[in-house]
Amino acid sequence: CGVFGVIGVADAANFVALGLHALQHRGQEAGGIVSHDPVEGFNSARRFGYVRDNFTSQSLMQTLPGPLAIGHVRYSTAGSKGAAIRDVQPFFGEFAMGGAAIAHNGNLTNADALRRELIERGSIFQSSSDSECIIHLMARSLQRNIPERMEDALRRVEGAFSIVAMTRTKLIGVRDPMGVRPLVLGKVGDGWVLSSETCALDIIGAQLVREIEPGEMVVISEKHGVESVRPFRPQPAKFCIFEHVYFSRPDSIIGGRSVYETRRQIGVELARETPVEADLVCPVPDSGTPAAIGFAHESGIPFGMGIIRNQYMGRTFIEPTEQIRNMGVRLKLNVNRALIEGKRVVLVDDSVVRGTTSRKIKEMILDAGAAEVHFRIASPPTAWPCFYGVDTPQREKLLAATMTEEEMRQHLSVDSLKFISLDGLYRAVGEAGGRDNNCPQHCDACFSGEYPVIPSDMIQKGFQL
Ligand code: 5GP
Ligand code: SF4
Ligand code: MG
Hints:
The chain has 18 helices and 23 strands. By secondary structure, it is α+β, with helices and mostly antiparallel strands.
């Protein structure tokens, strides 16, 4: 998901709509905005579909007045899949001291247990979302102001959270103690901005101030500016390495480094680790493009767009059902036959999850007359599900969970299939010495199976580490 918030500008909701549009790649199912105005109070609008199809209407935006607003773009991980407007964020709760609205990116790993406990004690849940627990925990806290109630609530939850929240007068941003999901602070005029990624600051002309640090909470008001607190026991940082590989937009900056440059570097490492004799390097667009550019540069094999993407389709992975996803690949990608014919082609993609994309693409490339097909993947085999906010399927559906690399190669029937090593990936994201196996510098659980937070709800349901 993507989260965004603004304080201290006229008609903040308009800025939020723009910010969410720039974060649309983080979630395409639905979006929502909550604003606050001193006279009109809290207002909210939550809609299915793209930001540009909903939050561009003047009549809707006029219902969201005020100098303070937050928003969310959703892609379901926890909670029910598919249609239920009650699961669309931001969530708003009216309780002592005027209430609050929150937008959450990530996934809480003990939400089932918390929900059971809260329901037993009388909480009435409106949605099936893990994030709603936070509102109920805040409503029950005995602290005397909302930021402190939020600290209270967040000390009870486990898992990954980057949160943008608001009260009547404050914009609040928090990252979980390990900083699994991103969150940055920006400045626009006299106002302040919180955003999942820097690409959404650019769109509203805001300047990046800095990243919110793992375990940090910032409370921003027009009166006092930015105040920072540290509600949690310090822990080693575990930023999601997959944000670098796939999830973030390539024009965003993470840790002072452009995501595009990191991805290009992944391609360079990949070419060094898994060289191949071929005539053409093709990306699987768009997610494989920067890595393919790096691969071509390092290997000296010419780069070409052998697969053309229809720009009017969304990301395949985020389509909720398998059937739609299967169709999606063909609706979205087509082969550039004239370029491919008779060539030995290296196809570079960011990841293999179920193998649906790679299989379809291999067929298309061979149908177009390629002499050989070599897959090069810009991440290690995805063998474990993510429980921290990226929607990977159950373990059984992951190709790499049940097959060796050679079995996957046969399954896809390609001439070769190679993945970047974990060490190579760490080098590419800027860890010159590779992965520190005693205390990995990132979360890489979907590749390594080493979960930095025990996924307790899932273990309760029978998941085996
Ligand atoms: P597959 O078809 O193997 O199931 O999925 C691989 C494709 O989906 C890749 O081309 C990649 O761009 C995209 N993708 C891979 N992993 C993820 C993921 O965890 N989350 C999302 N949203 N998309 C992914
Ligand atoms: Fe990111 Fe993978 Fe960790 Fe999930 S399990 S947070 S996708 S690195
Ligand atoms: Mg892709």
